[in-house]
Design goal:
The complex is a heterodimer of chains A (387) and B (184). Chain A is α+β, with helices and mostly antiparallel strands and 387 residues long. Chain A has a single domain, classed as Cytochrome-c3 Hydrogenase, chain B. Helix content of chain A is 46%, strand content 14%. A three-stranded antiparallel sheet of chain A has the order 1-2-3. In chain A, a hairpin with a 2-residue loop joins strand 4 and strand 5. In chain A, helix 4 runs antiparallel to helix 5. Chain B folds into two domains: 83 residues, Alpha-Beta Plaits (2-Layer Sandwich); 60 residues, no CATH class. Chain B has six helices and seven strands. In chain B, a hairpin with a 4-residue loop joins strand 2 and strand 3. The radius of gyration of chain B is 25 Å and the shape is elongated. The chains are: A alpha+beta (387), B alpha+beta (184). The interface between A and B is medium-sized, with 33 and 21 residues.
């Protein structure tokens, strides 16, 4: 950046990082004057792998793109395939998908609140948030049989029915959570530790949030009404008396508060959903026939807008798959906001957008001699690509 | 202030930790453990091995096509339950095993899945086709689902075609003029 600024390289592998990323900060004293983030240390080639597996095998692969928001990935992949095939899942399966997606959102948001509390040095809140997260994981375990990676969402619906007994016992753990969540919100609002660390850090107004490309709860914390569930309802959210949660200040603290409020709203949606599911019967899947075409789906994952695009040539496997995870947008947005912060605020700023670095790793072909970027090519062309 | 209450409660009440190794873990009713296999029900269609997303469930020919082994490798199995869903005769089911600890890697492979396949051989070229019980299963299904008036003829045709390997089957179909290419 400028000549007087010192370069502070953090990573790619660093005890403070959970995932591999290379953060370069140019600092002058305590102030950050420039920032750059480099990804690509955890590339797993999932999109290429998807082209070699059948549509059905890919559901489980899509689930494993992310350990936290795996149901969102499965729903997004299956919705894209369903649009390709021109089918739509039965109503009961759609309700079950909403239930799974909303429970996952609660778990993801509570996890992040705990993480940021830990980054801010407020370990008691970290423990508390993760303690009440167990209730929602219990509910998920009751419904799907496992805490994460349910393997329930399938092409054309949901693969297994959920007995009413399991739904009722999941409801009981959610009702315990319903008492704990308002407590969590008031602890967060009253806590001077959290407020002093997070208030005013990377404050973004509505216009800037739109300009730098925030998605998901980060955009909604700035008051920007950006929610795929409202904009392009891929599941019947309208029946469940659901509205997007909006914040106003758009700083790191508001992003946490919006997440806590959203968790509460998701809980409400999940409870309504369980009530409807208990009284509803009907098929869970529809029959389908593979065909050529292309499908694109947008889904509101806990972190924001998730996009799957796939094309097929009437074979058993997709011929091209593209995934765009929300972190791709959020991360490039937050890096623009880092200059001007103190070095100590950088972990809070990056943590507050709920980053998931590994999910968004892509391939870039570099020259071995000069490290110059030779090409950013689609993965499809990698097998035949020649420098 | 709210948090202080929480801290005091944690001091007086026992922690959430359970006595895990001493007491068995409580599993949800729909728990998906590693799949186990019922030899008596299996019809040797090996649908499980063709749908497995990770290649944990696979078929291996030993002793030159005379014996075939169905192997489930627990180190690769992700307990997705796809094989259990696809199995036409419910021969696979999830166990309630949650502690998959073993001292040797070979112990992770389900060895009870050695299935003996009594191969039907092609009447033309003597190539092994598939197991007797698989053919019988398909014939049973056909006779169940077909309407009365075409059943006998269809079963007769099925008997003729099922005794041939795929290559010879195509040849016969071409000769009879019933191959799919005709309609393409």
């Amino acid at each position: 950046m400028t000549r007087s600024a010192a370069l502070l390289p953090i990573g790619p592998y660093h005890p403070a990082f959970i995932e591999g990323e290379f953060l370069r900060l140019w600092v002058r004293g305590e102030r950050v004057v420039g920032a750059e983030i480099k990804l690509g240390y955890n590339h797993r080639g999932i999109m290429k792998l998807m082209e070699q597996r059948t549509f059905h095998q890919n559901i489980f692969l899509a689930e494993r793109v992310c350990g936290i928001c795996n149901t969102a990935h499965a729903i997004c992949y299956c919705t894209a395939v369903e649009r390709l095939l021109g089918i739509s899942p039965p109503h009961r399966a759609q309700l079950l998908r909403i239930l799974l997606a909303e429970l996952e959102r609660i778990h993801s948001h509570l996890l992040l609140i705990g993480l940021v509390a830990d980054l801010a040095g407020f370990r008691t809140l970290f423990m508390y948030a993760w303690k009440i997260r167990e209730h929602v994981l219990d509910a998920i375990e009751r419904i799907t049989g496992s805490r994460r990676h349910s393997g329930m969402v399938t092409i054309g619906g949901v693969s297994r029915p959920v007995p009413g007994k399991d739904l009722a016992s999941a409801r009981r753990s959610l009702l315990v959570l319903a008492k704990e969540l308002p407590k969590l919100l008031s602890i967060m609002r009253e806590s001077t530790t959290l407020k002093r660390r997070c208030r005013g850090v990377t404050e973004v107004d509505k216009q800037t949030a739109r300009k730098i490309g925030f998605v998901g709860p980060n955009a909604r914390a700035s008051g920007l009404k950006l929610d795929v569930r409202a904009a392009e309802p891929y599941l019947p959210y309208a029946e469940l008396d659901w509205k997007p949660v909006l914040g106003e200040f758009g700083d790191s603290f508001e992003r946490l508060i919006v997440r806590a409020r959203e968790a509460y709203q998701s809980l409400r949606t999940a409870l309504i959903c369980i009530k409807q599911l208990l009284s509803e019967s009907g098929p869970l899947t529809v029959e389908y026939q593979l065909r050529a075409g292309e499908g694109i789906a947008r889904v509101e994952a806990p972190r924001g807008e998730l996009v799957y695009y796939l094309a097929a040539e009437s074979t058993a496997h997709p011929s091209f798959v593209r995934i765009r995870t929300p972190t791709m947008l959020n991360l490039s947005a937050i890096v623009q906001l880092l200059p001007g912060l103190r070095v100590a605020d950088v972990p809070i700023a990056i943590g507050s957008i709920d980053p998931c670095m590994t999910c968004c790793d892509r391939v870039t072909v570099l020259s071995a001699q000069s490290a110059a970027v030779l090409a950013r090519i689609p993965l499809r062309a990698l097998t035949t690509w020649k420098p | 202030m709210k948090l202080l209450k929480e801290i005091l409660r944690a001091l007086t009440r026992p922690p959430v930790t359970t006595q895990y190794p001493a007491k068995p873990a409580s599993l949800p009713p729909s728990f998906r453990g590693p799949p186990d296999f019922d030899d008596a029900r299996c019809i040797r269609c090996f649908a499980c091995s063709s749908v497995c997303p990770t290649g944990a469930c696979y078929v291996q020919d030993i002793s030159d096509g005379e014996r075939t082994v169905l192997i489930i490798d627990y180190t690769r199995c992700i307990s997705c339950g796809r094989c259990v869903t696809i199995c036409p005769t419910d021969a696979l089911h999830h166990t309630r095993e949650y502690s998959l600890l073993a001292s040797r890697k070979t112990l992770y492979t389900l060895s009870s899945t050695e299935v003996d396949v009594r191969f039907i051989r092609c009447t033309e070229c003597n190539q092994p086709i598939t197991d007797v019980s698989h053919i019988r299963f398909i014939a049973d299904r056909l006779s169940e689902n077909l309407p009365e008036e075409v059943r006998d003829r269809a079963l007769e045709d099925f008997k003729r075609f099922s005794s041939l390997c795929p290559a010879c089957r195509t040849k016969l179909a071409r000769k009879l003029g019933t191959s799919p290419e005709k309609w393409c």
